[in-house]
Predict the structure.
Amino acid sequence: MKQYKAFVGLLLLSLFPVISYAQGANAEDISRDVSQAIERGSSRDLSRYFGQNVDLFLPRAEGTFSKTQSEMILRDFFNRNRPSSFTVIAEGIARDGSVYLIGNYNTRAGQTFRCYLLIKKVSQNYYLHHLQFDLQ
């Protein structure tokens, strides 16, 4: 019986971050998390914010893609352009709750991409709607 209670306790503790993330995310948290995911080159972390479809504008892919396709395309982009740094140069929140962010994505190969993104608020949830990387 003690083992069962310990298991249930550990299970609940392990779910707590997921529950609090889903219910308590605000615009500042979203902006910070997305910036950190880009800085790490983590398509998986970015995909947490994808809706059903994402507008992507990358050197090798341009269009509206499903969540799964978007993650694969971004994984390829990050693999080809390994990050060295990401610096936010402008960000804000629109009246409708959408978050925009502009930054410089620097690669290990010495390239710089200007990054534009828009995170839309739909009901009480945020979704990465638009992500663009332009080579400078």
User: Anything to note?
Assistant: Strands lie at 50-58, 61-66, 83-93, 99-107, 112-122, 125-135. The first helix runs from residue 2 to 24. DSSP finds four helices and six strands in the chain. Confidence is low (pLDDT under 50) at residues 2-24.
